[in-house]
Amino acid sequence: MQLYLPIAEFSLNIFLLIGMGGAVGFLSGLFGVGGGFLLTPLLIFSGIPAPVAVASVTSQVVAASTSGALSYYRRGGIDLKLALFLIISGVFGAFAGVWTFGYLRSTGQLELTISLGYLVFLGSIGSIMLVEAGRAVLKYRSGERPPAHLPHQHNWVHGLPFRVRFKRSGIYVSVFPVIAIGAGIGFIGSLLGIGGGFILVPALVYLLRVPGVMVIGTSLLHVVAIMAVTTILHAVASQTVDVLLALTLMVGSVAGAQFGAAAGRKLRGEQLRLLLGLLVLAVAIRFAFSLLVAPADPFSMAIVTPGGAG
Amino acid sequence: MGTIRVFLAILVMALISGPATAQRLVSSMSDPEISIDSSFAGETITLFGTVASDFENGDTGVPAGSFDVVIAIHGPNSDRVARLKQRTGGIWINREAQVFRNFPSFVRLLSTSPLSNITDAEVLEAEGLSFEAIVRRTEPDDGPRGALFSSNLIRMMEKEGLFELDERGVTLLSPTFYSARVELPAFVPNGTFLATTFLFQNGEIVARKAERFEVRTAGFERFVGEQAKRNSLVYGLVAVLIALFTGWLGGVLFRR
Fold first, then answer.
1. Alpha carbon distances (Å) from A177 to A160, A208, B2
2. C or N terminus of chain A, fewer CB within 10 Å?
């Protein structure tokens, strides 16, 4: 059954859309990530214009992260003060990201930037995850157990001025890295159509030393808030949010995530991180391919719409 | 849609037409308005008409020779840019671009026989009855790079199914009566279309007639598309609320 998407001005099979949402939802439930970094490329490769794919997935990420954020909130797994600092700076990042998005679209370099962005971020994060998880798996095999808590050592980040105490997380840290992380994730997320949870979680853990019980919930709340703001910004600035597309993806992914989460409980943490690292790296390699290999058609065309977007 | 109605109209026209001297075209089409709804998967429209003698100008109604019919359908115009990727520092980047102003988003050229048999190249050029002629009207400069971009733009438009030439697309059911079936694909752009019918005799245009028709989204799809453009802030807020609600509902249903 074909579904006409009013903003994409394009028909796609509704079962294909729900299926894509379900598959990505399964993986996001399995690994505890938003799944935007998989869904946006999938949509682009199935013919949806990149601007519509990015903006619509942004609202899908809101849906995918809401139930998780709510359940962490009920369990007290969110540092609201830290989340507030991250969100306020993230909103500024999102504004800059959406503005950059429109500018790049008008100059014809949006697809290139999205490809490069995915390559750089997924490539580096995927490699780090793979190395870290690979070591953990080897250690597990050799009978060594990983330490339950990160050593309470201080790094260079903790030497910066204007420190703020975040009681829930039990950290006392300068506002600058907090603002930089929040704004950075907001910028990258709005530009690439990803929640950025898989970048935010390691940043909070390794740079700010946020404890494990707070990190996932706080990161999920940041993703919900920033992606909600970004959806509105995309709707106003480029009018590329397709609610019908987003809704079919949401339905698929919300259902798929439940099965993924159940499957995830059968695997150990480092095994999951190893698989996620491989998946992230595979997407990065797919983008590297599209950048490095001579395109089948060096020519492309687009409609120039008034207001700089095209 | 309305196949019987079209058939009846064709029948009536065929009966009233009779022999003529080709000074006037009487034409019509099956659907002056095509609406796109959620299950829209393209639609076929029929354009038909007859050559009527122009009695007011003193014609006696004696048929003279044979006619050829050419139909040009143009979709709504917009500025379109063609871009060329080049390898730069190892990666493929859009480097050169050319903008074509007021470029038709959709073109169908249909005729009773190959266009080159109907008339000469100058007439085709002047009337915009070739893709090259259509592009030339919108091209800012005419240098060798411009020619490269226009030929590739035509190639891409044809590959996407937005430009199509069908030199057997118009059927003459009698020497003076024609009909043409045009398939509008699912990705047909929205807006006002112009269908111009040219009547040729011995290589000269003896009559022409232009008709408009609309392609527009209907019902819910139209509502969504309009809200996205007119009330974009509200649209964005509603999109977020839908997302929050769906996420919350999923959590409740599956008790995470």
1. 9, 8, 67
2. N
What is the spatial distance between Cα A278 and Cα A287, in angstroms, rounded to a whole number?
14
Write out pLDDT tens, residues A170-218: 888 888 999 999 999 999 988 888 888 878 888 888 888 888 788 888 9
Q: List the single residue in A71, A243, A300 with the smallest CB-CB distance to B256.
A: A71
Cα dihedral A67, A70, A74, A75, rounded to 10, equals 70
Q: Which residues neighbour A177 within 8 Å (Cβ) at sequence distance 6 or greater?
A: A157, A160, A207, A208
Alpha-helical runs (H) found in chain A: 14-31, 36-45, 50-74, 80-107, 110-141, 175-192, 197-206, 212-237, 243-264, 269-292
**Mean pLDDT confidence for A23-33:** 83
Q: Which of A108, A244, A303 has its CB closest to that of B224?
A: A244
B196 to chain A, minimum CA–CA distance in Å? Answer: 24
Contacts of B39 in chain A (CB under 8 A): 1-4
Sign of the torsion angle spanned by Cα atoms A222, A227, A230, A232 = negative
The verdict on A267 touching B (C-beta cutoff 8 Å) is: no
Virtual torsion, Cα A105, A109, A113, A116, nearest 10 deg: 160
* The residue to which tokens 């057997």 are assigned: B168
User: Tokens for A59?
Assistant: 């609202």
For residue A194, which amino acid is it?
Answer: I
Q: What is the DSSP string of B72-132?
A: EEE--EEEEEEEEEEEETTEEEEEEEEEEEEEES-EEEEESS-HHHHS-HHHHHHHT-SHH
Domains of chain B, start order? 3-217 (2.60.40.3880), 218-256 (no CATH)
CB–CB contact B251 A302 (8 Å): no
Q: Checking phi first, is residue A86 left (phi over 0); if not, alpha (psi -120 to 50) or beta?
A: alpha
Domain spans of chain A, in order of start = 2-292
**Tens of pLDDT, residues A221-240:** 999 999 999 999 999 988 88
Q: Chain A partners of B80 at a C-beta cutoff of 8 Å? A: 301-304
CA–CA distance, B189 with B216 (Å, rounded to integer): 8
CA distance A59 to B230: 19
Minimal Cα distance from B234: which residue of A? A232
